[in-house]
Amino acid sequence: MKKSSRNPNQNEKQREASLEQGSFTLSPASLPQERESPFFRILLQVLILGLGMYGCLYSFLTAFGISYASSALPAWLGLYVLLAVVVYSFSAWPLLVLIPGLPLAAWGFFSLDSLSTGFVSLLNQVLQVMTENSPWVFVQYELPSFVWLRDLPGLEQNFLLLASCLMTLVAGYFVVRRPNLPVFLVCTAPFLILPLFFTLAPDLRAFFALAASWLLLGMVQTGFWRKRAVKQGRFLFQKNVRRQLALVLLACSLLSVGTASVLLPQEGYRRPQSAEEFLQQLQNSGIGGWFQSTPQEEVGLHSLSSLHFTGETALEIQCSTLTPMYLRGYAAGVFQNDAWEVTSDSNYERASADFTWYDGNLLNPMNLYARMQGEGAQLYDVTVRNVNPARDSVFVPGGVSTDLASMADGLARQDLYVEKAGGSDTYTLSAALLPDLPGSMLTASASEVPREFQISEEGNEGIPGLVNRYGNYLYEPYTALPDDIRAAAENWLAERGFTPISMLESMEILDVGEVCRQLQSIFQSEFRYSYTPPVFPNGENFLEWFLQDAQEGYCVHYATAGTLLLRALGIPARYAEGYIVTQDDYAGGQWLEDGYLQIPDSNAHAWTEVYDPDTGAWIPVEMTPGFSSQQFWDSPSGTAASPSPSPTPEPSETPAPSETPAPSESPDTTPTPTPGGGVDGPDSVQGQGIPQWIWPALSLLATVLLAAALVVGRRKWLMGRRQKAWGQPDAREAVRAYWKWAFRMLRCAGLPLPDEEQTSGEYLQALCEKCPGLDLEKLQKAYEIGEKARFARQAPAESDRAFLAAWRLELEGALLAKMSPPVRLYCRWVLCLV
Fold this sequence. Notes:
Blueprint: H1 8-20, H2 38-63, H3 72-88, H4 93-96, H5 98-110, H6 112-132, H7 152-177, H8 181-188, H9 190-197, H10 204-221, H11 223-226, H12 239-263, H13 273-284, E1 298-300, E2 313-319, E3 325-332, E4 334-336, E5 339-341, H14 345-352, E6 357-358, E7 361-362, H15 368-373, E8 379-386, E9 393-394, E10 396-397, E11 410-413, E12 417-420, E13 426-432, E14 441-442, H16 462-474, H17 483-495, E15 510-511, H18 512-526, E16 528-529, H19 542-550, E17 552-553, H20 555-568, E18 573-581, H21 583-588, E19 597-600, E20 604-612, E21 617-621, H22 694-726, H23 731-748, H24 760-770, H25 776-791, H26 798-818, H27 821-830
Parallel strand pairs: 16-17
Antiparallel strand pairs: 1-5, 2-8, 2-19, 3-10, 3-18, 4-5, 6-7, 8-13, 9-12, 11-12, 14-15, 18-20, 20-21
């Protein structure tokens, strides 16, 4: 058989013509075609996918502190990276992908229960860390009752293994088969962005591995290196050159990892001040409420940050008398793992049956003091309107007399606080004035201590009986301490001459009010109030650290320390958070036309509550040093005022509000009141914060931008598929793709399709009459080429493809000129034909 010869000059002209028509070659016409090296291709694909999956997974795990001791995870991850590269390298990948995919699907199907348990356990760990590092509370999910705690690590590892392998198969398609950096970013970036938003720093090696994968994929994919002509020789960079440059970039990335490991801090990362302010504005805008379904269950001391306020209104109140008050939104009775937690609901429910039923109805212990006072109680009414704090909180004054068990808009959480149960954000409560400090005198040895809380000798009848039984119940849970905390407290108290109730002689007396005053005096004289206290280090005993090392902080620290010290003495005490209203607020605060007083976020506070068995009341006791002016804090009973409260982060949320003027950093000074400025001087707050309307506007803008990105991305993807179909090696299929596009364009322009009763000549003549911009001769030739591709045995020639490529532009221009502007937009952005 005689071989056909080719004319070099003709080849040169064909190449130049193809370039002018929008196509391109991988090498100049004057140079021999260089074959792509499979080594560089496979090496880069393995590196991109491996680094991306490793960096994505381990950035997430290290940032959230999730353990991954099993060596199976990296081993299987590496195996599936190799399998993905191999599978997607073949044209039969839709079938080959079943080889690694079916085992994962079978494992997921037959182990669904255990894998879902592992997922829930991992999710709870993530939500817990997010709660500790944000002003929001993320609800955790309940694990199945049949699961052993010792089995959870294995279940978590199994879920991580399955999820990482599945993710590798999905991401591998967009690295090997259809390289696409935006989609790869969508697959991997959220696992890095989420922890960074919550100030969680991932491992540097994992972080740089993920960043390197993005850079490498961008280098390989970008059209700058794939299709750039040198003006003189129309030289187009080879794929091998691009991949060699990508490997050089990888070496630079590895050098950056080593440099960063030496220079950048691995621990102690904190958000910039601007990010803190934005996060607080986000919280105040109400968007944070989307994440929070219940008031805070835990107050962790390790998550405390510097104190900032914005001056935004938190509450609006209307009171029947100008009474200073503590409005409690949260309280906790259990201190463990350096955090305050709510007592177990099951334990409380079992015990509460003995002291919550009265006259056939439920009566919450928070109502006992007002009921004990009877007709002699000095009642007042307060109406509260929640503005910016947690929408699920009901802020209750001490000595509340409103029946909490039957409150329509509130649900009492044990004897601690009240959760919002729907309805309006405005609620009215009645309460009885509380004494300033507990007035009880405690005697007896440890075995006789519960008798000290029998405040009535009339037996267990009526309200006094409920108070007796409640007092007997609360002694144990509200004096409980971890062993290390108790030891630290007893040592510190012994150095200052305090004696616990359990060590009193039979006739000795412990004056609870006097003990509280002594602790207040010590904190006032030896400790310092600070908006920017040192960070409580992990692994330390909080009480030892605060009493001996730090000796400074704000109200969360002092309320915690005071509560723990009182418990060590045998005095029932608990931690509480909320807002305070002082005489200065009434005198110099902002009053609205409807009679409501605005309470700024700087009035947020934490305090200690001590149980007084002589009255059956939980009485707020101020442990925070600071304001002590009688004018600033005029007590309800008119007796000597206790040291005044100082601000804290908003209740029921991780304590980290927004901005306020920083106090003096001098070690021997404490904050002083500002006339008419409220608790922390809202008059001195600078700036008004971000307007509330900005968030809906930003949400709308983000939605529009996202929709636009989806439309543009869809158009780019469809156009890319069409260009690939036109440029495929099979000329017959390429011509058919042109043919299909041409008829879709004709239909979009409103031109008729072929009729069975018309000949081809008549049909083409009719098209030219309806669209004068069409050339009949070229239209006939294009029609003949299309018919040949559809029905003839002989495949169309490359010259036919080149003709259709040029004719396509003429057809597109003629049809677009005929279309109306809306139709052109529809054709361009919906059908994506042009």
